[in-house]
Amino acid sequence: MVFHNGPSADAAPRRSQAVAVVVALSVALFALSTVETLPVGLLPTIARDLDVSPSAVGRLVTGYGLVVAVMSVPLTYLARRLPRRALLIALLSLFVAATAVSAAAPNYGILFASRIAVALTHAVYWSIVAATAAGLFPPHVRGRVVAGLFSGLSLASVVGVPAGTWLGQQMTWRAPFFAMSGLGFVALATIIALLPGRAVEESHASRGAEPNARRFAVLMATIGVVVTGIFTVFTYITVFLTEVAGFSEAAAAPVLLAAGVAGFLGTSTAGMLVDRHPQLSMLVAVGLQAATLTSMVAIGHVPAAAVILVMILTFSISAMITSLQSRILLVAPGSTEIASAAGSAIFNVGIAGGSLLGSVLLATDSGVRGILLIGAVLATAALLILLSEPLWVARSRAGDSAGDSASAAAEPTALRDSALIR
Q1: What are the angstrom distances between the C-alpha of 241 and each of 229, 301, 334, 364?
Q2: Any idea which of 4-18, 156-170, 180-194, 229-243 has the lowest mean pLDDT?
Q3: Least CB-packed of 71, 72, 109, 355 within 10 Å?
Q4: Three-state DSSP class for 16?
Q5: 169, 45 in Cβ contact below 8 A?
Q6: Are residues 214 and 177 part of one domain?
Q7: Are residues 198 and 259 in the same domain?
Q8: Nearest to 149 by CA among 23, 16, 326
Q9: For 417, what's the count of Cα atoms within 13 Å in the CB-facing half-sphere?
């Protein structure tokens, strides 16, 4: 297969070509995820340079998350008829330009506006990227493809944000934004060169392989509850490590790095399991979260136990994200991209809700212990919701059977009536 001036729209990609495209999509996901939370690590530096309050810099992250939560579904719906190759090129071009504007922003207003533009890119990119990547490979390796894709997300927390923070501290806070814009450009160039159009449009991953509205509803309810519980705790994980486990702030940093490595392993492990056991992998991930948060209530004050539990929690979060996206591709009742957009919106609402709930609890007498307890309760509730899935599916089948029986019983009467009319 020979390409002239870019790949043929009718050609299916070679395996090496498809792998390169998935790597590029993962690099873009790494850059997007790093840019999303980068202001947190550079908060004092940005505040001083732009002469704004630290809380104003914090709103750069909050506003970003709210835009993703609110706009994922409507924007993905509006873009549903656009050719996916052209859409990806447009999204990554906007990301490169808007992130470069963020890096060069002369004031807070322009920085905030450019962040909103990146968030709009994120809202649609996250919704379409998994189906695009999975569609380049046979269905039986879908989980491994999704895991490879989302390794970019895991690496953003392990490498991207810490390295970006260090670079910003050594040079200027603008430097890591320019670097992420550059990575986005590399991903964009790869997509332009190697991604065929028709291969994406006719992908098997564009619709749910085993569509089931009830399974999808249970999955979304599970995600909404468990993510709220997790981020009630995870937003204040440093506070847990210092106030409950007794670590110093300096000692907490290596623990978080180890947790990031565990998260990368969680993505890889889920990728190996999810193709053969899609439901079980999700169940194990949520079950681990419930057990870990409960254990943090009981033995989180023991330093060694706290380190292990934080690593397990991060491992399970990453495994859940991979399992979630693979399960969406399986049970989505219609377009997998709209379903992914719904999942992304609910996930971000859970993050915002959990962070808000944690901040309220932290200000009460219950403090960190209250945060851990509520997180454990919500994670356990999410596990129970997920375990109830077979019951809901059985009810659905029973209703369908009853409807079929009623139709069969009514048929002779209808035939007699029609005969009388004749």
Answers
A1: 18, 9, 43, 19
A2: 4-18
A3: 109
A4: helix
A5: yes
A6: no
A7: no
A8: 23
A9: 5
Q: What length does the chain have?
A: 422
Asked if 286 and 198 sit in the same domain, the reply is: no
- Which CATH number do you get for residue 352? 1.20.1250.20
Model confidence over 289-327: pLDDT tens digits?
Answer: 999 999 999 999 999 999 999 999 999 998 998 888 888
* Residue located via tokens 């004092």: 44
Residue 125 CA to residue 32 CA, distance in Å, equals 9
Both tokens assigned to 249: 């702030």
87 part of a folded domain: yes
The position carrying tokens 């219950």 is 366
pLDDT of residue 5: 45
Q: What's the token pair of residue 99?
A: 């992130």
pLDDT at residue 126 greater than cutoff 50: yes
Structure tokens, 220: 């979304």
The residue type found at 144 is R
The number of domains in the chain is 2
> Residue 24 and residue 136: Cα distance in Å, rounded?
13
Instruction: List, in sequence order, every residue forming a beta bridge with 207; answer none if it has no partner.
Output: 335
Alpha helices in 79-212 (DSSP H): 84-104, 108-134, 142-155, 161-170, 174-194, 197-201
Do 196 and 127 share a structural domain? yes
Residue 403 lies in a domain: no
Tell me which amino acid residue 397 is.
Answer: R
Q: Give the residue, 360 or 188, on which the prediction is more confident.
A: 188
Strand partners, 335: 207
Domain-terminating residue out of 206, 236, 270: 206
d(CA 202, CA 136): 10
DSSP-derived 3-state class of residue 272? helix
What gap in Å lies between CA 395 and CA 217, rounded to an integer? 14
In a domain, 409, yes or no: no
Structural domain harbouring 214: 207-395
> Tokens representing 276?
């053969």
Q: Rounded to whole angstroms, what are the CA distances from 57 to 41, 116, 121, 131, 237?
A: 11, 13, 20, 34, 20
Cα 132 from Cα 357, distance rounded (Å) = 35
Say if 414 falls within a structural domain. no
- Taking the C-alpha atoms of residue 363 and residue 367, their distance in angstroms, rounded to an integer, is 6
Residue range 27-79, pLDDT digits in tens: 999 999 889 888 877 877 888 899 988 778 878 877 888 888 889 889 998 98
Q: Is 224 in contact with 386 (CB distance < 8 Å)? A: no
Query: Which of the 8 DSSP states describes residue 12?
Result: P
